[in-house]
Design a protein that fits this description.
Blueprint (H helix, E strand, L loop, with lengths): L2 H12 L3 E7 L3 E8 L2 E6 L4 E2 L2 H8 L7 H12 L3 E6 L3 H11 L2
Parallel strand pairs: 1-5
Antiparallel strand pairs: 1-2, 2-3, 3-4
Bound molecules: zinc ion.
């Protein structure tokens, strides 16, 4: 990992910028990482991040982790994330808001 990438990952962990959103009663889980450019939707299986870096690495078939995904995996291992609970009825408006944040 490049030093600059590592710094970004550490800064996300420091800021506790990894969030787990749980919708009840379905227990649907959504994870977001607040990066330098705003919120990003991340997922481990399948590996996915909504940022441009990840998108372009997919296009180039590099399958590289962007710094959001690296931070996400590290935070999960160390339990360094915040959990928020919602009702299933809020899911749609939550996703709408999230996609407004993603540039
Ligand atoms: Zn990303």
């Amino acid at each position: 990992m490049k030093k600059r990438t590592k710094d970004k990952v550490l800064s996300i962990l420091d800021r506790k910028a990894i969030r787990r959103h749980v919708f009840l009663p379905s227990k649907t889980e959504i994870w977001t990482v607040i990066g330098e450019e705003g919120d990003n939707l991340v997922s481990e299986k399948p590996t996915f991040c909504s940022c441009k870096d990840f998108y372009f690495s997919l296009l180039k078939k590099e399958k590289k982790f962007c710094y959001h995904l690296s931070a996400f995996v590290a935070a999960k291992k160390r339990n360094m994330y915040s959990t928020f609970y919602y009702e299933d009825a809020e899911f749609e408006s939550f996703m709408n808001l999230l996609f407004k944040e993603i540039k």
